[in-house]
Every structure is written in C-alpha cells, then in structure tokens.
C-alpha cells in the first residue's frame, strides 16, 4: 500500500506534541525513494498509454499517492518548524547541545536565521521614542513583585546582577533576586520560584 | 484544500473506506488483498484509505464510488441514536466525527450529518464528566481522539481557573517544552 512509511513518521510526531524528536532522515530517505519509484513507474506507463489506453487509470492512482506523500512530508517539516520556533522562545537563542543534536543541519540554519530576525525586530522596537529595543521573551506573565525568592535547581555558575553583585548559583541554594533578572533562568528551568 | 498541513487531518484521511472501482486498473491488483490477479477489475469492492478514495473520486470521470464505512450505516446508526454513550469510540472509530464530516457527502439520504450531531449531543454530558473526573483512566477510555483532546483541554482550564480563584497569583514557571524535554531525557537515562 502507498504512503505507509510517511504515516509512521507523522504518528511519531503526534505522539510527542510537547517535545521535539530527533530528525528522522533515514525514514525520509526511504519515503523519497518510494516517491522516485512511483514517479519512474508513472513516466513509463504514461509513455505507454498511446498503445494501451487503460493504463491512464493506474497513472492517476500513483499520482494521487505521490501527492499524498508530498503533503505528509510537508506537514512533518511544518510541524517541526513550529516546534523549533517554540524552542527559540523557551530555550533562548543558544540551544543546549542535547537539543541542538535533535535538529537537522537545515533546521538549525533556520533556527539561527529566525533567532537573528527576532533579535533585530526586538532591537528595533521603540527606537522612535528613544528606547533601545525591548526583549519580548521576558515578562510573558504580568510581574507581581520586584523581588522574588527562588530555589536553584541546577549548578549554573556565576551570575552578575545589574548592580554589580556576583552571586553563585549552586544546586539547592536559595536567593532573593530581582524578578527581571531571574525570569529567563526560571523559564529555562535553572531556578524555581518559591511561593 | 483546508488543513493541508494539519497532522491530525492527515491521520483522519488515513482511515479506510469501502470503495467500488468503476474502471479497470492494470498492475494495481495489490490494492485488493484477496485478488490473485495483477490487474484490478472494474466492479471490485476494496477498502482503501480515504485520501486515495477522495482523490480518485474527484477525477473526471470518477474512478471509484465511495461507500459508507460500517459505523455510519443503519445498524450502527440505530445503536448511536438509541444511546450513544454506550459506544466505545476508541475501539469503533477513533476519528468518528472527523471521518463522518468527510463521508457525509457520500451519503445520499443525508442521515450521517444528523447522526453526528445527535451523537455529540448525547455524549456531551459524558465528555463533561470525563473532564472533571479524577478517575481519568476509565472515563477517558471510551472517548474518541478529538473527544479526549476536548476533555483534556477542559480539565486543564478547570485547573487554571481554580488555581486563579484560590490565589489570584501566578508564579513564574519553567517553559513547557523545556520541562518536557527534561522529563523525557530523565526517562531515557533511567532506561539505560
């Protein structure tokens, strides 16, 4: 039956809607092979329709299968693209190496370009009224207080605050920090707010 | 074409529908598992995926005529109209509503559309109770794929509302994908 491999690929993506899977280039290669084969068979039969008129029905069936494969592959790539976009907003502009290796080379290029585009857009915001840009990935929730108490979830190293103080973020240490300076780290899972 | 890039729509159109071929198809014998011939003869009844059926039916002249899957036929329709809540949609048709929307246009009498609506009306109470129930395993079991999604969405907004009512405060949290990536990595680590 046609287009079965590509369904396996999509089911895999559907199973994990909240995380990104490793780019499955092996399966994509197999699907493209199937498509090449279908195309070649169609070319042969299309040339032969002059002698045998009944072949045109077969050509149409294969053509439908080709279109189906194309649609599924595009959907797979599009779904990944949406997830990669989310990666930029949630992990920040630098991906941890274990996430980086889940993307294909082309996808990583796209990520870098998206990241650059987003950064230059955020820098351009508010320039006409004298501000030098605004970071849209911050303050996704309305801030309730200037300072919050946080618990450190991982060894992160040193963090320099805006007033010049340097603190060391060690696992299980507690800090009382300005909200503006630690919310990115909270979103990245390094810190956790204590309420 | 609507939903061209939607994965769930692709999975719906992968469901099989019974079809009757109106023309001979040389070399396509493998579409019919019971046929020994290389060629598929006109008049054969085969179950093929919806996407293939739709695209072959829209050709000029149409290559197939599409029939209703059995769950939309009279026998099941009577069950659904009597008491839709007793039906285990997960087993019978994961994509009952979505597939129904597609095949409704092949139903000459136009009864499928009414059945779909009626079924949803009857099952709505079940859906509501599934979304507030704590025993998720047994209440979610008989729901179809889209019903499960609805119930999960209802449950999470219910939780969000009660959290907001109690505290009126929303602590900053780890981003969704970051948290899930961690969880998954930890699960993989434990496996080895």
Automatic annotation (TrEMBL), chain A:
Compartment list: Nucleus
GO CC terms in record: GINS complex
Domain GINS subunit, first and last residues per copy: 44-125
Superkingdom of source: Eukaryota
Keyword terms, alphabetized: DNA replication, Nucleus
Main location class: nucleus
Annotated DNA replication complex GINS protein PSF1 C-terminal domain residues: 144-194
Signal peptide limits: none
GO biological process terms held by the UniProt record: DNA replication
Record-linked Pfam families: PSF1_C, Sld5
Role: Required for correct functioning of the GINS complex, a complex that plays an essential role in the initiation of DNA replication, and progression of DNA replication forks. GINS complex seems to bind preferentially to single-stranded DNA.
Quaternary structure and interacting proteins, as annotated: Component of the GINS complex.
Family recorded in the similarity comment: Belongs to the GINS1/PSF1 family.
Protein name: DNA replication complex GINS protein PSF1
Organism: Loxostege sticticalis
Organism lineage string: Eukaryota, Metazoa, Ecdysozoa, Arthropoda, Hexapoda
From TrEMBL, chain B:
SUPFAM superfamilies to which the protein is assigned, alphabetical: GINS helical bundle-like (SSF158573), PriA/YqbF domain (SSF160059)
Main location, first listed in the record: nucleus
Protein name: DNA replication complex GINS protein PSF3
Domain of life of the native organism: Eukaryota
Keyword terms: DNA replication, Nucleus
Domain GINS subunit: start-end pairs: 72-165
Cellular compartment(s): Nucleus
Oligomeric form and interacting partners: Component of the GINS complex.
DNA replication complex GINS protein PSF3 N-terminal domain ranges (all copies): 6-56
Organism the protein comes from: Loxostege sticticalis
Similarity annotation: Belongs to the GINS3/PSF3 family.
Function description: Required for correct functioning of the GINS complex, a complex that plays an essential role in the initiation of DNA replication, and progression of DNA replication forks. GINS complex is a core component of CDC45-MCM-GINS (CMG) helicase, the molecular machine that unwinds template DNA during replication, and around which the replisome is built.
A Pfam short name: Sld5
InterPro entries for this protein: GINS_A (IPR021151), GINS_bundle-like_dom_sf (IPR036224), GINS_Psf3 (IPR010492), GINS_Psf3_sf (IPR038437), PSF3_N (IPR055221)
